[in-house]
Amino acid sequence: MLCSGWAFRHVQLSNGGRQILKFLFPGDVVFSETLLSQAEASNPSYSAKALTDIQLCSFSAGALREKCRSYEIAAQALLQMLTEDVRTAYELVTVLGQHAAEGRIAHLLLSLMRRVSQQALAVDRRYPFPLRQQHVADAVGLTPVHVSRVLTSFRDRGLLTLGDGMLVFHDLAQLDRIASLQS
Amino acid sequence: MLCSGWAFRHVQLSNGGRQILKFLFPGDVVFSETLLSQAEASNPSYSAKALTDIQLCSFSAGALREKCRSYEIAAQALLQMLTEDVRTAYELVTVLGQHAAEGRIAHLLLSLMRRVSQQALAVDRRYPFPLRQQHVADAVGLTPVHVSRVLTSFRDRGLLTLGDGMLVFHDLAQLDRIASLQS
DNA sequence: CGGACCTTTGAGCGTTATCAAGTAGTGTGG
DNA sequence: CCACACTACTTGATAACGCTCAAAGGTCCG
After folding, report:
1. What is the band of A43 on the pLDDT scale with cuts at 50, 70, 90?
2. Dihedral angle of Cα B92, B95, B98, B102, to the nearest 10 degrees
3. Could B21 and A93 be called an inter-chain contact, meaning their C-beta atoms sit closer than 8 Å?
4. Quick check: A141 and A104 in contact, CB under 8 A?
5. Quick one: what percent of chain A has pLDDT higher than 90?
6. Exposed (0-12), middle (13-18) or buried (19+): which is A99, by Cβ within 10 Å?
7. What is the rounded distance in angstroms from the CA atom of residue B163 to the CA atom of residue A183?
8. Helix (H) or strand (E) run with residue B158 in it
């Protein structure tokens, strides 16, 4: 489990690319979807990487499974965690299936910052942002080149500023509109 | 829970479109990800539709949650179901993020038929296929027009035949290659 | 026969990928 | 202190891809 810092879960693809599945913040379990499977018979090559310096708390998956047998609370917590994972995965599916590049990137930035700040986003407040444009590209299924173009366009339109590990929103209303596909 | 027939789970979008999240076969729980939440506070408008005549077995979600407290087996089954949902959702994310149109459609057709046949696919065997091209489009994030073009191309290349509610694979090796992005 | 729905096909265009070059910033070693 | 490499980002030109709009054919059903 991640205790401090940022990380992400991804699949490594045979053609050299990768798809980022989830960004991990403190409190997130790194491989929640494989907690139960003792055999680890998952064919895709799941992996995880740190984006900043991180601290981990490790625990025994076997012991947790054992706890789930005796303590109902452990099972309930695990069920809620997985339910949340399914919901956010479906949200990502919707974004990838329905949004063009601008909507994908706007959605990613907004949802990341909402998760990390745990409260409403503020205009002109600076948020730490340790991702490279390559990570954004791998998360939303675009090339780094195109991510750069979209971010430059956002900057030129006065929507946000992104650089030096900092992200500043200037026009949240407009970004929400872009991210929410009311065409 | 679906007992017979085909159905699918989707989100209805504000702009009139929809994203299909999962195709449902007998044994699948229609809304597995909302089984636990009593409040139903999910903002996206999840929905489900039948593709064929279907039969449902209904049960009380409250009673199931109650069972999870007392019977460890119920909790274990629910956990496995959700874990599987997370895995397949991540697979769909990878497909949408990394594949072009041909790969997306090939992947969808192959994985659907693998799920429905529960065994290795056979060349030149006919599989029932109740989806319209509109459904394929909504599942993989393309327009029906482009789905038609890709399917026509598959047909012209002798890879498969799709029509009249039937799907016939002619070149599984080639289709697997297209679906597995070894560029 | 008419209408509704699905599919196919064409033309044009917008979006995104690819390839390539150029610009910083940063750290390394002479 | 200055080449040098290395990485990240930007920008341009070109091409592939997929969308939109439109028309036509097919099937089914009233």
Report:
1. low
2. -150
3. yes
4. yes
5. 69
6. buried
7. 33
8. none
Reduced to 3 states (helix: H, G, I; strand: E, B; else coil), residue A3 is: strand
CA distances from A77 to A24, A29, A64, A116, B34 (A): 18, 12, 11, 21, 15
Residues engaging strand C (CB under 7 angstroms): A 100-102, 141-143, 145-146; B 132-134, 144-145, 148-149, 151-152, 155, 163
Task: Indicate the pLDDT class of residue B42, thresholds 50, 70 and 90.
Answer: low
Q: Is A81 exposed, middle or buried (0-12, 13-18, 19+ CB in 10 A)?
A: middle
Other Cβ atoms less than 10 A from the Cβ of A8: the count is 20
CA separation for the pair B81, A29 (Å, rounded): 18
The answer for residues whose C-beta is within 8 angstroms of residue B55's C-beta and 6 or more apart is B2, B3, B4, B5
Q: Which of A100, A161, A159 is nearest to A129 (CA)?
A: A161
Residues in chain B: 183
Name the nt closest to A150 by C-alpha to C1'.
C16
Phi and psi dihedrals of A125, rounded to 5? -95, 145
Is-contact B107 A104, C-beta < 8 A? no
Cα gap B127→B99, rounded to integer Å: 24
Q: What percent of chain B has pLDDT over 90?
A: 69
Confidence band of B94 (pLDDT split at 50, 70, 90): very high
Q: What's the CA B149/C1' D25 distance, rounded, in angstroms?
A: 16
Q: Which two tokens stand for residue B17?
A: 């479109």
Task: Copy the structure tokens of residue A36.
Answer: 């139960």
* CA dihedral sign of residues A33, A34, A36, A41: positive
CA distance A54 to A154: 30
pLDDT above 90: residue B61: no
Distance in Å from D14's C1' to A42's CA comes to: 41
- The CA distance from B52 to B129, in Å, is 10
How far is A3 from A24, CA to CA, in rounded Å? 10
Instruction: Give A13's contacts in chain B (Cβ within 8 Å).
Output: 94, 98, 181
